[in-house]
Amino acid sequence: MIDSLADIKVCAFDAYGTLFNVHSAVGAHRERLGEQADGVSLLWRTKQLEYTWLRSLMRDYVDFWQVTGDALDYALDANDIDNAELRDDLMQAYLKLKTYDEVVPVLSALQREEIKTAVLSNGATQMLDAANRSAGIDELLDASISVDEIRVFKPDPRVYELVTSKFSVEPQEVLFQSSNAWDAAGAAAFGFKVLWVNRFGQRPERLPARPDYEATDLNRLLELLKINFE
């Protein structure tokens, strides 16, 4: 390991957008949505995130399943789509999201090296359990941690504290991976070492805390930790 990461004991991962491709839900029903598919998917994700932030500020928590449904309803309405069966199918598809190609090999390599791994997500416990099982990564994780435990969404510092409490470690002993720039900033502000998985070439956020590392996929994590694929 390189010196700055010599004390890492836990690798924690955001779920949606980092491990799971959130657009694969719409992708599973692209033919039914036609030319509106991409617009629906982008707006669904945008409103999903906005509602977590707004509900945290309003102190009006509901779990991520309801947030996801509310965001989908907005996206469908904005596109003049009124189809209850399609709506239900899209929600069910969110429980079976596809992982990005490198996810299983990276988690497997970490497991071989006996590095603790965890998902830290806004996702409801049942959502995460279903997605982890469907993707076959449940056996590669030491913990799957949901904000349901404290009823507030990221980037509230109490969310990141769930990892340090779970594993009895200090923030600087955690390397956190997220594809969401705002989440990476929140984790860095808490004191985690952070790898921003900038999959889509986004601009960096103008926030006080910055991630320590940036990459286009999770393979960079193994490079940082000097772990070889097998």
List the uncertain runs: none
What is the H/E order? Answer: EHHHHHHEHEHEHEEH
Report the sheet-strand fraction: 5-15%
Order of strands, widest sheet: 3-2-1-4-5-6
User: Which CATH class of the largest domain?
Assistant: Alpha Beta
Through-space gap between termini: 17 Å
What does the largest sheet look like? 6 strands, parallel
Structural class computed from helices and strand pairing:
alpha/beta
Mean pLDDT equals 96
Number of domains: 2
What is the annotated CATH architecture of the largest domain? 3-Layer(aba) Sandwich
Care to describe what's here?
The chain has 230 residues and is an alpha/beta fold. The protein folds into 2 domains: 3-21 and 97-224, 3-Layer(aba) Sandwich (Rossmann fold); 24-96, Putative phosphatase, domain 2 (DNA polymerase, domain 1, Orthogonal Bundle). The protein has helices spanning 24-27, 30-33, 37-58, 64-78, 84-93, 103-112, 125-135, 157-167, 181-190, 219-224; strands spanning 10-13, 116-121, 143-146, 174-178, 193-197, 213-215. The protein has a 6-stranded parallel sheet, with helices on both faces. Strand 4, helix 9 (181-190) and strand 5 form a beta-alpha-beta unit. Helix 3 crosses helix 4.
